Predict the 3D structure of the following.
Amino acid sequence: MEKQLEKDTLPKKSVLSAQINLEKFDFSDNAFEKATEEEKRQQDVMSESTTFFKDGMKKLMKNPLAVMSIVVLVFILAVIVVAPHVVPYSYSQIISVNGKRDKTAKNLKPFQYSENELKYMAEGGKVFPHIMGTDAQCRDYFIRVVYGTRVSLAVGIFASVLVLIIGLLYGSISGYLGGKVDLIMMRIVDIIYSLPDMLVIILLSVVLDETLKAAIEGTALSKLGTNMISLFIVYGLLYWVGMARLVRGQILTIKNNEYVLAAKTTGAKTGRIIKKHILPNCVSVIFISTALQVPSAIFTESYLSFLGLGVAAPMPSLGSLANAAREGLQSYPYKLWIPAVVICLIVLSFNLLGDGLRDAFDPKLKK
Amino acid sequence: MSSEYLIEVEDLKQYFPIKTGFFKTTPLKAVDGVTFQIKPGETLGLVGESGCGKTTVGRSILRLYEPTSGTVKFRGEEITAKNMAEHRKNMQMVFQDPYSSLNPRMTVEDIIGEPLDVHKLYTNKAERREKILGLMELVGLNAEHATRYAHEFSGGQRQRIGIARALAVNPQFIVCDEAVSALDVSIQAQVINMFEDLQEKLGVAYLFIAHDLLVVRHISNRIAVMYLGKIVEIGDADEVYDHPIHPYTESLLSAVPIPDPVIAKQSKRIVLTGDVPSPMRMPSGCPFRTRCRYATAKCEEICPSLEDKGNGHMVACHNR
């Protein structure tokens, strides 16, 4: 057994000393008891294990703005998926009553019926209401807005994915190889950065118009029109540079972490290091910036359409709808309001969601 | 070929090109002609101030940098870039920073299992798991920690994970690169004791890089003192500590804090004047001569080489 501590063997405490006064303690045998196995184990129990993804989602769900934007986006998505199956009109169809073209259904107000439709209803026929009225060509405005939103969202997401793929490949090669390769690749990026993107889009859509028209004849792309193809080409040519820089920067920082060095020490090959160590650690940042790229692509598409360089008629997009509404701005201001509000909602939601994702997932902001 | 030594480092040089002008590059001589040997199951302590090339020596041995010149032999066989892949199983490293040396996106099981995956040291999943749990037990981690992520652990536990990873391939030689410097003192003691236990159990040899002289003395059989990329003194731990010969070692040892204030008052501290010269503009002759109190004209011209002063105690100095 251990030596019994006697009170009189304890060192005398000086009055001014900050030392603990040992005399106040009881050192007799049963004053202390040993920790049981159970108590020792309890010391070891830690908080519930969470994965990085679970942790991030929990934080995201606590951010009211992000949750609101998710709700808005899901709502918009549901409407553009469901509406074309419910509403019996199509985006290019001129309203006809009982098989006859209805010339009176021009510029109707929301939920208003035309003269022919009212007659038809009086005879017992059924007419689906025009939720947002009709446009100057007697087409149902609601379904045009729905299709316009579809086009804008599809263009935005497709352009962002294009940017992501090119930027990710270019940036990771440049960042991982480093040295002279990196130097040359980044100077190319600098040159591309200095090109005026709007001018290139306009030039391309003019120059490529004829060639593209023949190339996409008969495919689904012909409905979108050559202008959209040039928009994608421009995104593929110019807009990836931001993503490439971001990815390169991420890879440069992660590459120098000791865990990458540790993987090299164990003999891991380059492919394994990139797949297991580098990409998982920069994927959240890349994902977030892709989410922020979507609204910028939608915005570009919208103002190109507004300038008349957008999708080919009769396919609507939110920008071209807004442009068409300019003519009757005095009489029918809501026709500008509706697509404008939808653009705002989509862009704002994506931006807020992107911000929320960054706050939730960026490891640098982790407390 | 076999050899008495496990690791033989001969005239190892590691220069890094540094851009000094538009077209000019000057070599930074991080390690400049280092020679030492380590026997199986032995611990060599490597000490020296910050920036003297300790870490670079460790990393060059493991070929994390391609050495400028010099050879490293493992059991008498020279290690080249080609056969390094096999030797990765024999030589491992424990890193300084337990926070950045573990991938935050991997579970403990995957971190420790990575060397097993890389070298395909198991036939099925069950065997992999069994090996990982065995390693975790060896370093004193609970089996239930296997599915957790590195950020859920304390510094000491993280360092244990790093050690388990290094042990996964059954290495005979481990470079401990300031493996305990980032830990607080009580945890340091635990980890150091673990290093010693593992050496007893598994017979691994260590190159123990540190700047804490007391820790190095405790764990090492032999000690090498580095200054500006060169080894200035090497010998048995107690011999170097009790009878330092090189003036740099002398001043280094005089700076070790002594826990007893009475003895501390009596001891004389040898304070060096001046700063460490830049490794890009090394002084001629002996690198230490600019700060040495014994320096003579000879030191300016000829760089001293290591000479045996008895009992394998090697010192690079003209005057002592």
